[in-house]
């Protein structure tokens, strides 16, 4: 048995982090502040129909594991790269939210002189933090060495930036970039 | 009536430009030279099946017009962005290969201090050129003012770089970046 249509539950707060980031990035583009896009979801296309008088229709495809992060672009001449995650967990971000490939990707970003970070929303109290990728690498390594399987909330509080939320832009994360990286 | 499976004709030369660029980018990543990826094809997903004991299956989706270019990444701290095109035309690259959105995207890349260019393969004689996006902008503008609908081959010869092709990497376009931009 299968469920033909997925209903998306946006929760009490209305918008998802992804919606808010898309709106923020559109604002940054329209205001000529930065050029940052979400990448399309990677899919494995298996079958395509080419009807005579209408658009090509994909009839079989599957989600692929992403080999990079979801967002990248350019700001003040700098290459920007990040992954966004939302959690219901009140005290930590579970590392199972990331794939090995994404960690390696962010390590390479830094190696080549780019700026890499994560944006994490703790849904329970609607706080959004920016945290430099070095902290993710540290906890990822510790997990591989048998340590804890999450990044504690206090790491975000102590080493990250609480991003102010407002109407336009919704999540002004470039403020944190200005302070932390530039 | 419809044709359920598309057969892809790779032509006499064997590999497509996209294949060669993917191989080249993998080489650049593995050798720690640069971090450049092709973005996934943007799709509009209409219907997804969630079978009980197997992977989610997309049963209806359509190709979307891309709002950005196909390739981006970071090289020596610089943001890199480009579009790749292949043409059978011997004397010019038809501008119909581009969308307005892609032109605007490349203009914004330059505005924010990134490096934007096109890589074009003239299949008839297997020549591959890198051309800075400024030339594309000029011909795009001229077309909108009623001018020619293509970029002449001699613009590539005079103002672009003929990219040397070999086994590893197949299409060493970063050589042109070093000479032209850095
Ligand atoms: Mg993701
Ligand atoms: Mg394309």
TrEMBL record, chains A, B:
Transmembrane segments: none annotated. The record marks 85 as: Transition state stabilizer. Its EC number is 3.1.21.10. Keywords: Cytoplasm, DNA damage, DNA recombination, DNA repair, Endonuclease, Hydrolase, Magnesium, Metal-binding, Nuclease. Its cofactor is Mg(2+). Pfam families: RecU. GO terms for molecular function: crossover junction DNA endonuclease activity; magnesium ion binding; nucleic acid binding. Binds 1 Mg(2+) ion per subunit. It is found in: Cytoplasm. CDD domains: RecU-like. GO terms for cellular component: cytoplasm. InterPro entries: Resolv_RecU, Restrct_endonuc-II-like, tRNA_endonuc-like_dom_sf. It catalyses: Endonucleolytic cleavage at a junction such as a reciprocal single-stranded crossover between two homologous DNA duplexes (Holliday junction). Mg(2+) binds at residues 68, 70, 83, 102. The keyword DNA damage applies. Endonuclease that resolves Holliday junction intermediates in genetic recombination. Cleaves mobile four-strand junctions by introducing symmetrical nicks in paired strands. Promotes annealing of linear ssDNA with homologous dsDNA. Required for DNA repair, homologous recombination and chromosome segregation. Belongs to the RecU family. This is Holliday junction resolvase RecU.
